[in-house]
Amino acid sequence: MFGESTLVFIALGGIFAYSFYAVLVAGQLSLGQAGFAALAAFTSVAVGPSPADVGELPALLIGLLIGVVVGAVSAVVLGLPTIRLRGVFLAIATLAFAEAVRILLVNAEWTGGAQGTSVTKVVTPAIAWLALLLVGYWFWRQGPSRYGRALAAIREDELAARAMGVDVGRHRLSAFVAAGAIAGAYGVLWAYYMRLVAPEDFDFVAAIDGLVTAVVGGSTLFIGPLLGSGFLTMVPEIQREIGVDAGWVRPFLSGLLLLLVILFLPGGLASLIPVRRTAPPATGGDLGSEHERLSTRTHPAAGEPVVEVSGLGKDYGGVHAVRDVDLTLRSGEVVGLIGPNGAGKTTLVNLISGLVPATSGTVRVLGVEPGRTPVHRVAAAGVSRTFQHSKLFPRLSALDNVLVGSHLVSRPTFLRRLLWLPSARRDEQQALQHAARCLARVGLGERASVPAAALSYGDQRRLEIARALAADPSLLILDEPAAGMNHVEATGLSELIGSLAAGGLTILLIEHNVGMVLRTCHRIVVLNFGEVIAAGGPQEVVKDPAVVAAYLGGSAGEGPDLPGPAAAARPEGPTAEGEQP
Amino acid sequence: MNRSLTALAAGSAAALLLSACGSDGDSSAESGGSLVGEGTGEDCVIEDPVPIGAALSLTGGAASYGESQQRGLELAAGHLSENEGVSYDLTIEDDGTDPRQGITVFEQFVEDGASIIIGPTLSNTAFQAQPIAQEAGVPVLGISNTASGITEQGDYVFRVSLTEQQVIPQTVQQATEAYGLEQVVVMYSNDDAFTESGYEVFAQSLEEEGVEVLDTLTFSTSDTDFRALLTEARNAEPDAIVVSALIEAAIPLVTQARELGIEVPIIGGNGFNNPQLMADAGEAAEGVVVGAAWNSASDNPANADFLSAYEEEYGSQPDQFAAQAYAGMTVIDHAVRAGCSGERDAIQTELGNVSEVETVLGTLSINENRDAEHEAVVQVVEDGQFTVLD
């Protein structure tokens, strides 16, 4: 049952599954790995030295090197045009690539066509398992590194990852290249074990096999592909061993088992393994001095302009969501942005944080031009935000969410983690402490290891603020942070914002809770139908007839007595429609 | 004294252990005696059943061939067990048309002490799995592998299936004579090892016969619509269309060709040698020329018995895969009885000496390259039957 070949096939299947795992952790569904493996296998056999000339092991190592390079390079070539594709579109594009490669190899002279090429057998179980362990080690070290967390963030919510300063395109491409390199290694190992390598070994079925192995094993824990391969390789062996009749019954039973695993273990076999979530470091010790180690940015001096908006407009078709807005935010200011539903508040902050490009006018924020600059660069310049509808990374723990938030201020640790450099551990510890502090600051210190999706609504809003704070921003944009909070929570939030402002942070606050805005903000800007209808100190704005008219409808003769939460609730009205995107 | 006793005890324990291990692994090779019989030929008597392993593709892409082979082998094993003296313990395993499982099954057979392994259904799997038996000194007998180089892998590898080299040149030669071919169009599926190597031999033979190839069209094994290619072929106005394809492609190809009004002969290889062709293509199959390793219409007594027994057992006509599997068992039985031994090396030696054995495929010999030699046949479909082309 555990013959030589079974051992080798568990290892090879595991390596191939890792090439799928490499992109699944970043939320990409690619089927191109079979193509990478095929190109790598045939190229290394054709170009590499023969084992008869240089000895078996050197030939294999050179072959592996060639295979890894060919796999990685073809992943770059395929990745550059396709990396923008998502979900099933990426799967189809990469599948088309794999199929094109197979057709190419079938028709090429140098590959031996459908009859394939003979190769000397070099790979032994020890070599195969060594290769598997190396690849597994890679992903074990990758998981809890800054790079690994960024990939998980992209998988969970790409837009939020961008807003946290993760360069999504580059991360997706590097995950894709890792997949190509590992698939290349698999192709070479396969060739040097099977004695004959034929294009049919890397067909559609092979690609699906690899994907199924990775998914059955579990695509969120590094051990998953190994478990999946062990399971899928052993199922036919065990059936043979216990004497299930050869024939259709076996694939039927295999299929049934697969179905059961997927039904009852949606997270794959790896979900049977209890996961120790990253625990926050014991707070205590001198947190202040630790803080020095994180690469904090230099914030603009108080009073310097942070946001300069002039003549800004945004049209959606015929709808003017934002019209001719002029706005300046200076460092250290807390500015409230209010207005009825549909007034264009969220569109305005999306323009400022670079999520949508402007139709007219200019925005300058901290030296960059959002809309013309990728979102992650805007974030890197010091803009951090929360979203009107929470955009947390639902399956990551609260602590991990905040760790992703600290992406921009922590140092990359993956490569150093591979080598077990002590500095990587130190950096990780600092990032953890930083994150724990941010969590504690919003009052979530106790809930660090809870997945974000399991938090209450109010806690989710606060977690989003903690995540935004972790980036050590120069400008913090809070889009309706108090929505759905009760009176007590809102008061707490108000105090938090006040303390942040006291620390010199520039804050742009969108809020329906007018009382809270009046309490917290130095200055208030009122939008209606995309236009600024009033701006100034809290007391001026409340008395402005245009504001009163906008909130109450029609032309009210006298100023309303807004300053109070009870009154603030009134203007909001039972509007069901959401904000403009 | 005490020490020497301990040493003795330890020594005998170790010896026991070693012998236990030894008899565990390759029982056939080590236990000795029981697989070696007395007498020779029909009088040979071997005490234990001779273990035979067969690695066939019973599921997956090649399952239809594997199933035919399984029937052929089981029918043959049943018939052979009626003879006195030697019995066979036939184990048929499925490789799922997956080379990985093919290798694993071969390893298992070697470990379980099979005296001979009947080779995998597909040539590519054979290339990948056979070396395991070769290295362990277990003879392999291919029953359907037609690619060249199969038996070059080692001196334990034999086959009863004729190569394309042995069948196709004769087909091309006889068809050229019968129909006066001058110009043909060649079609083949280029993503399958079997049909591709068949094409190569076709191309070579056509050149040798001086037949001009107007066009070479390729398709995929999974294709079912050949109308575009056939229209192209028809427009070239050939004297015949030469096709290297598996039966799954052959049936729609022949049907669609006749639909498009192509009346010239269609010449196929081993893949066409299947009663399914007439059953499914019906009228359209008329006039299809099939070069094959097995003459299903042959009235040699072995074949006549086989046809009726197969029909009785399974209720359908056998195809070439079943016939070759049946012949494989006949040849193994001959080799075992010739040396009156079911041991691996004895079988290997005697397979090399197989000469003029009567099988369902005709009188069969194994040459010095360990390939089979017997008469190939060129058949043409007439009235829904394969008949010998003359």
Mean pLDDT of chain B: 88
Q: Please report the number of helical segments of chain B.
A: 13
* Percent helix range of chain A: 40-55%
Q: Which CATH class of the largest domain in chain B applies here?
A: Alpha Beta
Tell me the radius of gyration of chain B.
Answer: 24 Å
Count of separate structural domains of chain A: 2
Number of strands of chain A: 11
Average residue-wise pLDDT of chain A: 87
Q: Report the structural category of chain A.
A: alpha/beta
Report on the structure:
The complex is a heterodimer of chains A (581) and B (390). Chain A is of the alpha/beta class. In chain A, 53% of the residues lie in helices and 11% in strands. In chain A, helix 7 (146-156) packs across helix 16 and helix 16 (398-405) runs parallel beside helix 19. Chain A is elongated and about 90 Å long. Chain B has 390 residues and is α/β, with parallel strands linked by helices. Helix content of chain B is 46%, strand content 18%. Chain B has helices at 2-25, 27-31, 63-81, 99-112, 123-136, 164-179, 193-209, 227-235, 247-259, 276-281, 301-314, 320-339, 344-352; strands at 50-56, 88-94, 116-118, 140-142, 157-159, 183-189, 212-219, 240-244, 266-268, 288-292, 357-359, 362-366, 372-373, 377-382, 385-388. Chain B has a 7-stranded mixed beta sheet, with helices on one face. Chain B has a 5-stranded parallel beta sheet with strand order 2-1-3-4-5, with helices on both faces. A 3-stranded antiparallel beta sheet of chain B has the order 11-12-13, covered by helices on one side. In chain B, helix 3 runs parallel beside helix 12, helix 6 (164-179) packs across helix 7 (193-209) and helix 12 crosses helix 13 (344-352). The N and C termini of chain B lie far apart (89 Å). The interface between A and B is medium-sized, with 31 and 31 residues.
